[in-house]
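#lab-general

N.A. 3:47 PM
ok so I finally got the sequence cleaned up, no stray characters, all 91 residues accounted for. can someone with queue access submit it? mine expired

B.Y. 3:52 PM
send it over

N.A. 3:53 PM
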Amino acid sequence: MDNHEDALWEIAKRRAAFKKSLSVYFVVNSFLCAIWFITSGKDGGHFWPIWGILGWGLGLAIQYANAYNNMDVFSTEKEYEKLKKENNTTG
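B.Y. 4:20 PM
back already:
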């Protein structure tokens, strides 16, 4: 495979991993909400599943941005390509 195909393959893997993580997120958090609902009683009590929902949701948001917005801020390859372009234009 050439570099372009390799890059597309990496994007496809990140997107598939995100979709899998999102599915697990909904299943697990639905289960936790059901446990809270069953055990909370008439007053409702503290909605403790919110902490997992928010924390895990933040991680999912980052994973989404990486999969769909190509947030390769720390990519060695991109930095190398940028340096290569700068070097070609100056010399």
